[in-house]
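@channel sequence for tomorrow's demo:
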Amino acid sequence: MFKKIKAWLFPLSDGFKYNAIDRDGDGLVQEGTKYERRVIVVKKATAKKAPAKKKAPAKKKPATKKPVKKTTKKK
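structure tokens (generated this afternoon):
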């Protein structure tokens, strides 16, 4: 029963497409049929570019040990 009601409400067999796509960009969908209609052309948002990868910092040379200076006086 439900399939018959759905088929009556949304007749797909005669060529009407609810979500028709405008492939050539002229603002008309289903051209050449009795269901031809104008659509508003909406531009798709462009994908955001991934942020550039940061380069690893240059490797530092290992620090050399300096001799320890004594600051106290000898007795």
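heads up for whoever presents: The radius of gyration is 37 Å.
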